[in-house]
Design brief:
Blueprint lengths: L5 H13 L14 E2 L5 E7 L4 E6 L4 E5 L3 H9 L3 H8 L6 E5 L4
Antiparallel strand pairs: 1-2, 2-3, 3-4, 4-5
Helix pairs in contact: 2-3
Length: 103
């Protein structure tokens, strides 16, 4: 596989976006832990990426970036996962949409 210098890669990325190409889909490799919640199905964390991934009961998956490990641990230990998510994660960390809700 050919490797491009970082600037060449960025140039290709910007050009493809300018031409209307869809960004590459995120492939989730973060293992989720099932949780008891009315809204949240699984929660996973990558120490390497500092990323928190949440799968909701409707099938959608979001990845939250630059999340400290203690936030993940607090979510797992929260009495209400949905309330903790709403108050401490949602709109507080940059997110990436990994998967749309199940149809």
């Amino acid at each position: 596989m050919r490797r491009f210098p970082p600037i060449a890669f960025l140039t290709l990325l910007v050009a493809s976006i300018a031409l209307g190409a869809e960004p590459a889909a995120i492939v989730s490799r973060i293992k989720g832990v099932p949780v008891e919640s009315s809204a949240v199905a699984t929660v996973g964390y990558s120490k390497k990426l500092r990323a928190l991934e949440i799968e909701f009961r409707n099938g959608s998956i979001y990845r939250y970036l630059e999340v400290p490990l203690d936030v993940y641990e607090a979510l797992l230990n929260a009495r209400s996962k949905a309330r903790y998510y709403d108050e401490n994660i949602r709109h507080k960390y940059r997110s990436q949409h990994v998967k749309s809700r199940a149809e």
